[in-house]
Design goal:
The chain starts with a helix and ends with a strand. The protein contains one helix and three strands; from the N terminus they run αβββ. It has one domain. With about 80 residues, the chain is of the alpha+beta class. It is elongated.
Length: about 80
């Protein structure tokens, strides 16, 4: 782990540019997603007890929101999403 961190610090402080000459890239945009859920009836439940989802359940959802992504040397990145579903 210390070798990895040491190598990372060397890359960051020596100023090695990425292929296009940028060290830090920032992306801002909007994400949208849609999906569905399906829980089937469990086969091994205690007799005469309703625990969690004991029957077939299903649903659908969709959402969207803005995001910001920051990348260092194209390999290390962090992303912040503010999504509403």
């Amino acid at each position: 782990m210390t070798r990895f961190l040491g190598g990372l610090l060397v890359l960051l402080f020596t100023g090695l540019p990425a292929a296009d000459g940028k060290i830090v890239d920032v992306a801002i945009g909007v994400k949208a997603a849609a999906g569905g859920n399906l829980w089937t009836e469990p086969s091994n439940t205690p007799p005469l007890q309703e625990i969690g989802f004991t029957k077939l359940r299903r649903g659908a959802g969709a959402g969207c929101g803005p995001y910001v992504e920051v990348r260092f040397i194209k390999y290390i990145g962090i992303e912040l999403d503010l999504l509403f579903e």
